[in-house]
Amino acid sequence: MTDERETRLAQLEAMMASPDFWADKDSAQTLVQEYQSLKEGGSGDPHDAGNATLAILAGAGGDDAEDFARMLRRMYEGYAAKKGWRVRELHANENDHGGYRNLMLEISGSGAYGRLKHEAGVHRLVRQSPFNANAKRQTSFALVEVLPTLVATDKVELKPDDLDIQFARSGGAGGQNVNKRETAVRILHTPTNLSVHVSSERTQLANREKGLELLKAKIFAKEEAAREATAKGRSIAATTANEWGSQIRSYVLHPYKMVKDHRTGHESGNPDKVLEGDVDDFIDAAAATGAE
Q1: Neighbours of 232 (CB within 10 A)
Q2: Which residue range(s) make up the domain with 8?
Q3: Both 146 and 168 in a single domain?
Q4: What confidence tens digit (pLDDT) does each residue in 76-128 have?
Q5: What is the reported pTM?
Q6: Distance between CA atoms of 80 and 104, rounded to whole angstroms?
Q7: How many distinct structural domains can be found in the chain?
Q8: Separation of alpha carbons 101 and 58, rounded Å
C-alpha cells in the first residue's frame, strides 16, 4: 500500500468519525465508496470511486450533431441503468427536433467517475441523415466531458472578479415554463472561458452553488489534462477540438455498421447495441491501455 493511499485512508477515517459526517448523505455515501475501494486495493485516484458529472456538447453537423447528442445521452443513461447508477439532469438546452445543443447529467453510483472518465473526448457519427430530404450521408460530432463530482475546494480558487454570473428561466421556451422564475444559472470563468449551466435545483441560490461546484471541477479537469498533455509532449488543444480529426470513437451506421475506438482499436459490429448502453468493452479496453 502506497503512502498516498494510506494518507487518504487516514483522512477518510477521520472524516467518517465526525459526528456530522452523515449530514450530507450523498457526499457521505461517495466518501464511504471511496474508502471501501481503497481498502480493497482499488485505484489511488480519490475521485475514481465516486460520482461523475457528464456533459455532452453538439459539435459540427447542425441538426444531426444535436440529434447525436440525444443518442449519446440515451447511451449513457442505458449504461448507467445496467450499472444500477442514478442519473439526474442538471441542465439541457434542447432544440425543436428533440436533440440537444448541450446537456449535463449527474451520474451517481459506485465507481461512476472511474469508468466514465474513459468516455471523455470527441465522438463521431456517420449515417444517412434523417434531416435531409435525400437521406444523404452525414458526419457529425459531439464532445463528451466527464468531471469528478467532488473536487477538494483548496485545489481550485474562484475569484469573484473572474466570474460572470447570469440568471434565466429554468426549462425551455413556451408552455408551462413561461411562468417559471429565473432560477437557472450560467457561470462563466473569464480567465479560462469555461462555463457551466445549472437549472435542476429549486432555487437560484442552490443552482448557483451547484454551478460553482461544477465550475471548480471543470477547471480542475482542464488543469489535470494540461499537465498530462505536457508530460506526454502533446498539445491539449489537439484533444478537445469538437470536429474532424480529433475523435476518440466513430459510430458508423451507413454504408456499413461498426463502432471503432481510435485510441485502442477496439471494434463492435453492432452499433445499435452499443448505442443502447453496451459500452463496457470499450471502457475496459481504454482502461487497460491507460487511454483517457
Answers
A1: 7
A2: 3-39
A3: no
A4: 999 999 999 999 999 999 999 999 999 999 999 888 998 999 999 999 999 99
A5: 0.77
A6: 14
A7: 3
A8: 5
